[in-house]
């Protein structure tokens, strides 16, 4: 082969190398680059290898995209594990007002698959139609700067009020007391100091686990507090709060889960529950 032809081949293969191997591993790129300095026959083989690596790489990337879970849907694994969707991104058939089971829910809106409580609108507290005893309740949420909201559990008609144990959702810039900070069991148990707070406006992922009398609060994949219903730790705090005269507050009861209506804007998605034996 003439020197100028060999040089042209190497130039063409170098272009292929730059075009198709941007996302290949450093080891693969180094190996093929060394080969690119070989003879024309070997260069032809390199072309095939280059295109093959590019095809496999693109196939892997497309598979990753396909496996990305969609919001407000359960995976096959979650369905097998017993999870139930409480909000499908389109309607509120699993929710009702406290003390008004048949009243149509207004004020709460559904925006691009997100459940939205607009700022300044009295939309009312909404709770699950079903009551739960032992469960893992999971949801994603976000607030605006200095926003405040919460999720309550152990809600019962016997109290004649929307009072329950509350997972506090709040911008910590708004509070000084750790017992009312983000992720706390409101006024009763404070979360760990190094909890993974995200900037307001970001989507957070939270979980409440109730198994017997044992309760856990999780935030963005980290357990931030745990307590035992009816324990000395809990019952000594209750008389120091506005809940001191509330029937069985601090104890374990079977009840509804409630999304609170504070004046601030709040968004929810991927609301689901798994009942435990």
Order of helices and strands: HHHHEEEEEEEEEEEHEE
**Assembly level:** single chain
What's the tally of helices?
5
What is the mean pLDDT?
A: 85
Your description of this structure?
This protein is α+β, with helices and mostly antiparallel strands. It folds into 2 domains: 3-67; 76-275, Sandwich (Jelly Rolls). 24% of the residues lie in helices and 27% in strands. The protein has helices at residues 3-20, 26-35, 40-67, 76-81, 232-235, and strands at 83-85, 95-97, 109-111, 114-117, 126-128, 135-143, 148-155, 165-170, 204-211, 214-219, 222-228, 256-259, 266-275. The strands form 2 sheets. Strands 1, 3, 4, 6, 9, 10, 11 and 13 form an 8-stranded antiparallel β-sheet that branches. Strands 2-5-12-7-8 form a 5-stranded antiparallel β-sheet, with no helix packed on it. A hairpin with a 2-residue loop joins strand 9 and strand 10. Helix 1 runs parallel beside helix 3 (40-67). The longest helix is centred in the first third of the chain and has 28 residues, at 40-67. It is globular and about 45 Å long. The chain starts with a helix and ends with a strand. Mean pLDDT is 85; it is low at 5-11 and 16-22.
């Amino acid at each position: 082969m003439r020197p100028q032809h060999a040089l042209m081949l190497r130039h063409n293969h170098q272009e292929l190398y730059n075009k198709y191997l941007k996302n290949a591993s450093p080891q693969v790129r180094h190996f093929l680059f060394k080969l690119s300095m070989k003879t024309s026959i070997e260069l032809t083989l390199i072309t095939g290898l280059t295109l093959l690596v590019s095809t496999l790489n693109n196939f892997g990337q497309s598979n990753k995209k396909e496996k990305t879970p969609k919001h407000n849907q359960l995976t096959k694994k979650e369905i097998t594990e017993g999870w139930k969707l409480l909000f499908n991104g389109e309607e509120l058939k699993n929710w009702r007002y406290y003390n008004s089971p048949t009243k149509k829910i207004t004020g709460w809106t559904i925006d691009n698959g997100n459940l939205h409580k607009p700022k300044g609108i009295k939309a009312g507290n909404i709770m699950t139609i079903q009551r739960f005893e032992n469960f893992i309740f999971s949801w994603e949420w976000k607030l605006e700067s200095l926003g405040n909201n919460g999720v309550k559990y152990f809600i019962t008609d016997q109290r004649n009020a929307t009072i329950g144990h509350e997972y506090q959702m709040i911008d910590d810039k708004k509070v000084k007391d750790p017992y009312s900070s983000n992720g706390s069991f409101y006024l009763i148990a404070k979360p760990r100091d190094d909890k993974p707070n995200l900037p307001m406006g970001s989507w957070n992922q939270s979980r409440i686990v109730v198994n017997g009398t044992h309760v856990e609060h999780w935030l963005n994949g980290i357990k931030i507090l745990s307590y035992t219903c009816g324990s000395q730790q809990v019952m000594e705090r209750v008389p120091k709060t506005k809940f001191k005269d509330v029937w069985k507050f601090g104890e374990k009861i079977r009840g509804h889960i409630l999304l609170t209506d504070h004046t601030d804007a709040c968004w929810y998605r991927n609301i689901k529950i798994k009942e435990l034996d």
